[in-house]
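Today's session is about reading a structure prediction critically. Students often jump straight to the picture, but the first step is always the sequence itself: look for stretches that repeat, for charged clusters, for runs of hydrophobic residues. Only then move on to the predicted structure, which in these notes is written as discrete structure tokens rather than atom positions. Here is the chain we will use throughout the hour.
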Amino acid sequence: VTAIIAILLDKYGLYNDGNYDYRTGFLYLSLINNFSVSLSLYCLALFYMATEERLKPFSPFYKFLTVKAILFFSFWQSCLF
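Below is the predicted structure for this chain, in token form.
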């Protein structure tokens, strides 16, 4: 949804990628994406805690950690660059 909004804002000149000015849509879409990624990481942690005992024979911790790292670093990489 935020990608479609970014495309529409860019079409009308209201999206300036990398500019965190409050008059551009980039700041607001970054905040929405940040909230979305934070919520997904929180839900993933809750899922892991709820299923930790059942999945113990499969040792899911490193798989869980990998998914968390991909979500975390892919978002912050886009903000950094």
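Discussion point for the tutorial: The longest helix spans residues 25-51.
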